[in-house]
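General statements about sequence and structure are easier to judge against a single worked case. For one protein, we set the task of working out the structure tokens from the amino acid sequence alone. The sequence in question and its structure tokens are set out directly beneath this paragraph.
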Amino acid sequence: MSLSTRHLLGIKDLTVDDISLILKTAEQFKEVLQRPVKKVPSLRDVTIVNLFYENSTRTRFSFELAEKRLSADTINFAVSGSSAAKGETLLDTVRNILSMKVDMVVMRHSASGAPHFLANHIPAAIINAGDGVNEHPTQGLLDAFSMKERLGRLDGLKVAIIGDIMHSRVAMSNIYLLNKMGAKVTVCGPPTLIPKYIRESFGIEVNYDLKETLEWCDVANVLRIQLERQNQVLFSSLREYNIAYGVKKSLLDSLKKEIVVMHPGPINRGVELDSDVADSKQSIILQQVENGVAVRMAVLYLLSGRNPANN
């Protein structure tokens, strides 16, 4: 089997078979990562550039490690130390990089649609590592992988996405993926942080009551409040947000069941999650980070053209 697309621009563009193939391949790479020797020669002689126009820790490190585990040659691009800081356009930057015979581009950009623009202008395979408020497909994939690993399934799973839905590309990728794979999704947060069109456009439920939402779900995927993307005041204060929508240990203990808690990071402790929740046995946040390497290895491998089905 092979993917139906040359690029990973978003979950929206993937088929159910694509998602299943990526998750199955990630299982195999996770087994590789448990070995004493964690490196395989799968992408030897493949050159990958990590083109990050936004700050990143987990995603950038995860891609870099995935590339090294696959034996790829990598170039790391930072805007602050490049000609982009002098006014060079995105397309000129990438064309210059491609003239050095680069095979794949992993790209994060503040502008929604930037990876799609590149995919229409250059021959290299493009992997979207987050574009504006559009999508973050590998985060959606690793979240799904982590849910399936912990609970054994996606079909029929009840997943609550809690927090700043309006500004979250992670939320969009999760919603697309979970809908495709048969999960049930509810979003929860202040009315000012949930787009009014989301119920009609995506066929998901909206609930403004945190406790009701937690009582309903099997998994709570808690999102960071993205103050840097908000150009107006959307709630009174972080303290008030924590009182109304912060996930606390006392709240989880009051439920009639044990739910799984997730977070894409970075965590604002004491805002969307209290520390005793983030560090509890119900949390799989560190497993998400670990699984991110395996999922990104799978994506890189499948898009490289090196898998036997493409040869």
Notes: The longest helix spans residues 285-303. The mean pLDDT is 92.
